[in-house]
Design goal:
Blueprint: H1 12-23, E1 27-30, H2 36-39, E2 46-51, H3 56-68, E3 73-77, H4 90-97, H5 102-109, H6 131-138, E4 145-150, H7 153-161, E5 166-169, H8 183-194, E6 199-202, H9 209-218, H10 227-258
Parallel strand pairs: 1-2, 2-3, 3-4, 4-5, 5-6
Helix pairs in contact: 1-10, 7-8, 9-10
Amino acid sequence: PSICARRWNAVGAMIIGDSYMHLYTTENIQALSYLTFILFMILGPKFFHIYLPAPIDILEKIVPQVDKKGYRAIVVTCDDPTTRVRDHILPLFLEASEYIDPTIFQTVETANINMNDLCSEPTLTKKAITWTNLERLRKLTRLPIICKGILSPIDAEIAIKYGANGIIVSNHGSRLIDTTVPAIECLKEIINVVDGRAEVFVDTAIRTGTDVLKALALGARAIFIGRPILYGLCCGGHNGVQRVLDILKSELTYDMACCGLTSIDQVNADILYKHA
């Protein structure tokens, strides 16, 4: 669930999508990341990822296209309501920019080129987000809606009330608020509160197959991978992304075998050590 893959590779979206088909995993495609024609060319299982609020006229134009192009769900980021100050990591962005092909940066950063109609509203990501935004989106699509960025059981309840079919327990890669709670520590409580009324997923700090196994054991329906995929994309393009996925799969398979498990269906909380 990562934005701007084209910053790190000129055809990042296509590469990631093709690599995901290798293991029949699902790509979470960010609406602000790619050219519109790429959004609808990517094959394989895919979710469409948007930020709210967006002007209702834009949603009315984009969402029906998503419905018709094979997307299985719409993911809505709920935890990034305003522009934030990140002075402590700004030097890292500046350092990274020195190693990026300038033509890629120019293409991605040029207004209305890769974001098309989504860029027509200059304050798209700066307005207040309320649950009514989700309610309006629910009226525009029959696809499942997945709310990303939920850490509170109360918010999970409200999201379901306003039409969410899924929850991604996430703290946005720990990039929004310093000292925020780890997503994995919130997962079980949210699963208990949701109680089967919606699917519950998790992301943030998933770096190994062991992390995947722990999240599955806690009850997550699936796990989203962010930065490791971008690392693979930067280092090796298609082969790099595929290698990251292969490593995660092999680690997960090995750890399951060490726990005496032969299928994902057998994974449960019994394999976890519980502190007294």
